[in-house]
Amino acid sequence: MTREDAVVVIGLGRFGSSLALELMKSGTEVLGIDGDADIVQAHNGLLTHVVRADSTKEETLRQLGVADFSSAVVAIGGDIQANILTASLLIKLGIGNIWAKAVSEPHGAILDQLGVSHVIYPEKDMGKRVAHLVRGVMQDYLEIGENFAMVKMAPPQETVGIPLAKTRVRPVHGVTVTAFLRDGAGWNYTTLETVLEADDVILVAGETERVEAFSRLR
Ligand code: ADP
After folding, report:
1. Taking CB atoms and a 6 Å cutoff, what residues make up the pocket around ligand 1?
2. How many angstroms is it from 95 CA to the middle of ligand 1?
3. pLDDT, tens digit (0-9, with 9 covering 90-100), for 5-19
4. Considering the entire predicted model, what is its pTM?
5. Do 137 and 40 share a structural domain?
6. How many distinct structural domains can be found in the chain?
């Protein structure tokens, strides 16, 4: 295991487990740590290494060689005290990239103050994302940074049947149709000459409010 390129995932609950498995799928080695014997057992063979340990103990983390890793994720959710203690120990060990899951704004603020480089709010972010989908007009929604989003949706009437250059989507709506999905042809990037069809699916990028307004067009 090359520790500089590998990731330590602490807490293999629903979030930590799916994160760790996804890392493995994309070819990243993972050291999983969890205090629960059954959970450790369930991940045996699925991660590069899995150990049963209490991540709030500095000596334990040192013995496991956690200090040699450059990236770690604190995926403990339910036990805020364990989450904060673990994050502070990872900082003490000098790990450069730390992602820690926060379950509330005040919890996230504490992690920020500790100096955690990436505080993540999986539940809140997923809630926001699903809210956009529940409204029924978007097929997928991804917020990228503060005020930018990408949306998968059906093309509004005014963008169908004429070359994109003539639709004036960008000057009028302030968004860009970046790609389109057509039956049998898969995804393709758009050009100014692309003529969308009513059955296409499009991928639109732009400021959050602009893409939301665009997705409401019929
Ligand atoms: P999720 O909501 O993603 O399922 P949970 O908070 O329920 O997250 O799960 C977190 C995991 O972290 C659990 O499997 C639990 O055993 C583990 N965990 C909690 N505290 C510690 C600790 N101090 N050391 C190691 N693992 C811990």
Report:
1. 11-16, 33-36, 39, 54-56, 76-79, 82
2. 20
3. 899 999 999 999 999
4. 0.83
5. no
6. 2
